[in-house]
Amino acid sequence: xxxxxxxxxxxSTATTQMMVDIARSYFASVMASPPTVIGATVARGAxxxxxxxxxxxxxxxxxxxxxxxxASQADGVIVGAFGDPGIEALRARLEVPVVGIGxxxxxxxxxxxxxxxxxxxxxxxxxxxxxxxxxxxxxxxFTGSRFTTGDPLALxxxxxxxxxxLASAVQACIAQDGAQAVVIxxxxxxxxxxxxxxxxxIPVIGPVPAACRALxxxxxxxxxx
Length: 225
What we know:
Belongs to the HyuE racemase family. This protein is of the alpha/beta class and 225 residues long. The protein has helices spanning 13-30, 52-61, 65-72, 87-93, 101-109, 126-135, 152-156, 159-175, 190-196, 207-218; strands spanning 3-8, 36-41, 76-79, 98-100, 116-120, 142-147, 181-184, 204-205.
């Protein structure tokens, strides 16, 4: 049985389980024999990555021996934070495909030169988000990020408010920036992303399903789906 490891680089086990559930649901919807998805949560860091310091700590936490041991037994790995912390070091250690929810969703949004924006809750990561888009060679198609207001952690505790706040950010990406697709930027925003896909006529891309699609392609399992 093919096994996928989804690593959550923040310390919230609830976020890990939510992302694992989304991944399992996605694979089950497109494959007759979906892979097994297991989750792993880093032992140190922040419950949500909201600034550059959190991102740096998350990258270091990915080197935990327990995380690496699980990754070495998997057939493919998903890094479940939008900044893809520690992904290059993980790829250097492993012989299996490793994808990040950030790069996967941004690449999908920008396919074919499509103009895209990012809607998320972490304004302190604005520079990092933009730098990662440029690193992927998609800066010319990027219409910019739109952010919710208030404390991201507090907002995440109120799902309806989170969804509505992100919806306003998505609308700003479309109406003010001219985005033709919008990425929901963050692993903890996965459930909200699922709901927002139904609220807009343009593609609203959830980061976890995008990473699942990218991993299937990297593992060549999409050909058998």
